[in-house]
Structure formats: structure tokens, C-alpha cells
Amino acid sequence: MIAIGIDLGGTNIKAALVDKKKGFIKTSCIPTHADMGKEHVYDRIAMAVSDLLDEHDDEPIGIGIGMPGMVSMDRKTVKNPPNLPGFKVENVADALKQRTGFRCVIGNDANLAAFGSARFGVGIDFDDFIMITLGTGVGGGIIYNNKIYRGTTGMAAELGHVIIDYHGPLSNSNTRGGIEAYLGQRFLSRYAADTIRQEEENSLYKTFHKDFEKLEPVDLYHAAKEGNELAVGILRKTGEKLGYAIVNYIHILDIRKIVVSGGVAKAGKFILEPAKETAIKYLMPPFRENFDIIYESLGNDAALLGAASLAFEEL
């Protein structure tokens, strides 16, 4: 059995033909051209689907699409997805069925990253886990009884907007101190730049003082690996904030396995070890049993595999 998975972002449309047991058969990536409007984006997705099926005889059962924004319970409509101009409340599933002829279901991209991990990644060993995606922003997905937990309207698991300090920094949350303000890539870079500016003798200052806009979390990781104590300290504080958020997630959901993915998570032990230490320190003792943080190495592929898996299970 095969299906098509789509990961729709503001910059690129990633597409894959996926076998239910074997995984990827064929993949592609094309620019979204989001600034040209939703109809053009729909046409671009249809083109990506057509290209995937070129010279492939087996017909897929349908299309699963992961995209930013809040998705309706019937998996057809998305509300106000970020980075996609012109998209407000849109029935994406019907629009794409009209263009491709295939049935279509949609899901939140971070939710589908969790689902991809559950079907093809490290999450395959767990019936229940919480995924935290640490990228440009912070997203998440909750897998409960081997299914995506979606809440009452389909919009559960906006984990990046859990608030840990009402007096903290700003991000895309409606108030200060959401976890995204500490762990989203651009917010982490902003905090790091403010800290490095106060340490003019540090090698990071000497490298980036002329243009801190170029500073990214990966630079902190490489500096930390080389023994730069300032970088280690910045990543440790970031990991501690993640640990506080994890305490909240576990106390609410009683799910002890945490899967972490995304570019910021590539900082590895420099973020994940302090996160684990902090969580163990502040979790109520009964919740510490079977607690663990696991890194998901699938990266962006998890959302593509999750989108195809959604088609397998819903269509």
C-alpha cells in the first residue's frame, strides 16, 4: 500500500511517495511561492503530486498533508496558517481533491512529525509519548494509545505556547514567557546575542560582533563542543527552560516519554542533559518512573512520513 505525504511550509513544499511498510519510495522538494497566493500554492502541490507519480504505476490511496496552523476535527480545514499569505479558514482537503483527483486529509505539521516518529522512528517503541519539535518555533504532538491526541476540536498540543514565566521574553505567544521564547531558533539566537555582547573577549563575540543576525544555535553547539564555556552556559540555561516545560507536560498528561526533534535539538547533550536534570528535580516523585528524553533523528522526514501515515489510517 502506498500514499503521498506532503509537508507544506512557507518556503518549500516537500513531497514523498511512501510505502506503508518500507517507507520512502520517492521524494521531491519545490519552492512554495507562498507570496503568490493560495490558488498558486494549491497548483504547486498538485504539480508536486503529478511529478511523484510520473513513471510510477501503482496508485496511492490518497494524500496526507502536514501544514502549520490549527486543523479541524474532520481533517479538512486549517485556520490561519502562519507564513502562507491569503490562507485564512481554508478547506485544503477539498481544494486538492479537485486538483489531483485523490482524497486528501490534513494535519498540523508538528502533530504529524510525532505520528511519523510513532510509525517509522524512535516512537515506534512507545504507545504513548510527547514530541517537542524545536525549530524556528516550538511545536509538538501527543501520541496516546498509538494515535494522535487532538483534544476536543482538533487543535491540541500547541506545546510551544505553554507559559513558564509571565515576565519573560516575547515570542509568537499572546503573552510573555512562552517556552517558544526560549527555545525557538530565532528567539534563542536573540538571547544568545544579548549574552555574548557582554563578553567581548569571548571567541563568539569576536566572530559575530559585526553581525549577530548570522548567529544560529548550531554555532553555539560547535562552540560548546570546542569547550567554550559561554556557549555551554547559554545552552544549559536553554535546556533548563525545556526541563520546566516538560514538567508541566508530564504533570498534566501523565506521559513519561519525551521525544525531541528539530534543528535546535541537534545541540544534543548540551540542551537535553540539563533538560533531563531539571525535569527529574522538579517532577513529583511518582512521575519520575519510566521518564526519559529521546532524540528523534528523522528530522523533517518525520512530518512527511507522518503525513503519509495519516493517509494510510484515515483513507
Question: How would you describe what is shown here?
Answer:
Helix content is 38%, strand content 21%. Helix 5 (185-196) runs antiparallel to helix 8 (229-253), helix 7 (217-225) crosses helix 8 (229-253) and helix 8 crosses helix 9 (269-282). The model has no long low-confidence stretch (mean pLDDT 94). It has helices spanning 38-53, 92-100, 109-120, 180-183, 185-196, 203-208, 217-225, 229-253, 269-282, 301-314; strands at residues 2-8, 12-19, 23-31, 63-67, 70-71, 77-79, 89-91, 104-108, 129-134, 138-144, 147-148, 257-261, 292-295. The strands form three sheets. The protein has a five-stranded mixed beta sheet, with helices on both faces. The protein has a five-stranded mixed beta sheet with strand order 11-10-9-12-13, covered by helices on one side. It is globular. The chain folds into two domains: 2-115 and 301-314, Nucleotidyltransferase, domain 5; 125-295, ATPase, nucleotide binding domain (Nucleotidyltransferase, domain 5), CATH 3.30.420. By secondary structure, it is α/β, with parallel strands linked by helices.
Short recap of the structure:
Helices cover 38% and strands 21% of the residues.
Helical proportion?
A: 25-40%
- What is the annotated CATH architecture of the largest domain? 2-Layer Sandwich
Domains, number: 2
If helices are DSSP runs of H or I spanning 4 or more residues, what is the number of helices? 10
Could you report the average pLDDT, rounded to the nearest whole number? Answer: 94
What proportion strand? 15-25%
> In sequence order, what are the helices and strands, one letter per element?
EEEHEEEEHEHEEEHHHHHEHEH
Please name the CATH topology of the largest domain: Nucleotidyltransferase, domain 5
The CATH homologous superfamily of the largest domain is named: ATPase, nucleotide binding domain
Largest sheet: 5 strands, mixed
Structural class: alpha/beta
Report how far the terminal alpha carbons are from each other: 12 Å
The value of Rg in angstroms is 20 Å
Q: How many DSSP E strands?
A: 13
